[in-house]
Amino acid sequence: MSERAWYETFRSMFKGLDRCVFLNSAGVAMVSEPVRDAVLRWAALGQCAEFDYYAIVSEARENAAAMVSGRTDRIFFSRNTTHGIHTFILGYPWQKGDGVIVADCEFPANRLSWLGLREKKGVGVRIVKSQNSKAALDDYYKLCDKDTKVIAISWVQYLSGQKADLAALGRFCRAHDILLVVDGIQGIGAAEMNAEELNIDWLSADGHKWMCGPEGVGLVWMSERAFNVVTPACKGWFGVEQPFNFEEFDQDYEANANRFLDGSPMVLGIMAFSAALKMLLSFGMDKIAARVLELSAYTINEAKRRGWEVLTPLNPEDRAGIATFRPSSGDLEVIAKKLHDNNIICSLRGGGWLRLSAHAFNNHEDIDKAFYVIDKNV
Length: 378
Ligand SMILES: Cc1ncc(COP(=O)(O)O)c(C=O)c1O
Description:
Blueprint: H1 3-12, E1 21-22, H2 33-47, H3 53-68, E2 75-78, H4 81-91, E3 99-103, H5 112-121, E4 124-128, H6 137-143, E5 148-154, H7 166-175, E6 179-183, E7 202-206, E8 218-222, H8 224-229, H9 267-283, H10 285-305, E9 309-310, E10 322-326, H11 332-341, E11 344-345, E12 347-349, E13 353-357, H12 364-375
Parallel strand pairs: 1-11, 3-4, 3-5, 5-6, 6-7
Antiparallel strand pairs: 2-8, 7-8, 9-10, 10-13, 12-13
């Protein structure tokens, strides 16, 4: 398939693009045809309660594992990114005085969750000070000591779009016996994730951004060493070896990551999420990632050539799909409203920034349309 045919086929998966200019994959994903079909399939199956739960969840786990290049038995489906992080926090055997390192520029899902530990467990949470929503790895390293048990970080920062060098951080964490917990939501689906190779220990991401899934279903992948240390906070009937053996009370936890499940899974959401993952994988994450990077470069260059301030790192290795900038004049609230009135979906973010996040189904014309509206209002 030629590159053009590949792109046109991918774009045709997103019918909503006929009705709006969607530059908000860092916000909430656009619904694709496979996701829509999966929802309808769920409804059709549900009319006669014909779900084959095991087949649906097994296939979805395979797709999730392929998306993060990790072992399938180390995957479970969470309710969202926060829930995945909480599962780690609630299951880790904290001792008074243990330490966690997290940056001040993290999205609340990966900041508040850890800060809460201070009060509850006497864990020392040290905060890396960021500059312009970018945190330097050296500043994480400086805060570590013998009590540090966890470094928690976003793969891609939600505002600046800074992409962390997880390979370097993963090596550091292994060398110092620290667990690396990653909020992957702003990266997975936009860039290629290889969780095993990067030495990540706990990877949590809801599906509703770059992975093109619905809100409220996420994936968690964990390393062998995390699997051996973190235990489920409570025994859930779906987290044991034989969930449907209701008479057997003395049941052991499931031997794989599904031990972290609680009750009935969100089958509808899992079907939709799985369809989205399958679609992305079939188009090739290498091709998708390359195109996403090219589109963020294009957005950044458009802002730069107008002389506007760009928050996103210019080096392609340090970013994925997020491109954040601010025009040098004009009222951003007005600009955001004009964009909205022109059916251009993007995000106005705190601190006076415009965030455009183009997925591989977008093109230069979409981005030009946004700049056309901005230009008229600066
Ligand atoms: C970096 C980051 N983490 C997490 C979330 C969302 O967390 P959750 O899936 O728990 O709603 C977002 C955006 O909404 C985000 O940008």
